[in-house]
């Protein structure tokens, strides 16, 4: 019967104990069987993949935020165009007479879609009539993880008509609430 052959014992590196045995080629082996100071190839590939993924996410977020800001600015400026269109429509419809609430509401319905305009007040002034309207526009959010994909921008305008309703001055308002302007 054969006896089991005994493996030759590798020489120890001084001060390293069992963990510091030399391989057949004479190199020192670490505890994990990998040379110290070197990274496994799979770890390098994984690190590169994670870095590329994070870079792509950050770039997509940055581009999306820029595009969302452009859409919001465009919607905000569209409210100014709506105010101009409303003022022109109201001026054409009430030539030579005072502006009342019913005239203003009809002009608002003709000029902008019903869901985009809200007539807040029509008040006579010393020189004519002041009409306060709230105009809104929808725009699409980028990467809507939480909340709706569509959001709205609202803006109030004070439109001053002279007594003949031919000359108008459109002013954007900083506050936009019924409590501020009242309902008449």
Can you give a write-up of this model?
- The model is unreliable at 179-184 (pLDDT under 50).
- This protein has a four-stranded antiparallel sheet with strand order 1-2-3-4.
- By secondary structure, it is of the alpha+beta class.
- The protein is built from three helices and four strands, in the order ααββββα.
- Helix 1 (41-93) packs across helix 2 (101-111).
- The chain crosses the membrane at residues 45-66.
- Keywords: Membrane, Transmembrane, Transmembrane helix.
Query: Helix coverage percent of residues?
Result: 25-40%
Number of helices: 3
How many domains? The number is: 1
Helices and strands, in N-to-C order?
HHEEEEH
Poorly predicted runs are 179-184
Instruction: Tell me, briefly, the overall form.
Output: rod-shaped
How far apart are the first and last residues' alpha carbons, in Å? Answer: 114 Å
Mean pLDDT across every amino acid position:
79
Rg, Å, rounded: 37 Å
Strand order of the largest sheet: 1-2-3-4
Largest sheet composition: 4 strands, antiparallel
Structural category is alpha+beta
- Share in β-strands: 15-25%
Number of strands: 4
């Amino acid at each position: 019967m054969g006896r089991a052959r005994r493996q030759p014992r590798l020489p120890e590196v001084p001060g390293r104990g069992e963990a510091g045995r030399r391989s057949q080629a004479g190199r020192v082996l670490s505890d994990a069987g990998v040379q110290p100071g070197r990274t496994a190839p799979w770890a390098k590939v994984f690190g590169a993949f994670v870095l590329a993924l994070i870079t792509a996410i950050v770039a997509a977020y940055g581009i999306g935020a820029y595009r969302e800001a452009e859409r919001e600015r465009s919607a905000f400026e569209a409210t100014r165009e709506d105010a101009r269109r409303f003022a022109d429509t109201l001026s054409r419809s009430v030539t030579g007479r005072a502006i009342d609430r019913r005239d203003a509401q009809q002009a608002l319905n003709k000029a902008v879609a019903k869901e985009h305009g809200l007539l807040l007040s029509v008040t006579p002034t010393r020189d004519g009539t002041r009409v306060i309207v709230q105009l809104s526009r929808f725009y699409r959010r980028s990467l809507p993880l939480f909340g709706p994909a569509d959001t709205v921008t609202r803006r109030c305008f004070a439109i001053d008509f002279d007594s003949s309703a031919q000359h108008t001055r459109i002013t954007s308002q900083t506050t936009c609430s019924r409590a501020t302007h009242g309902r008449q």
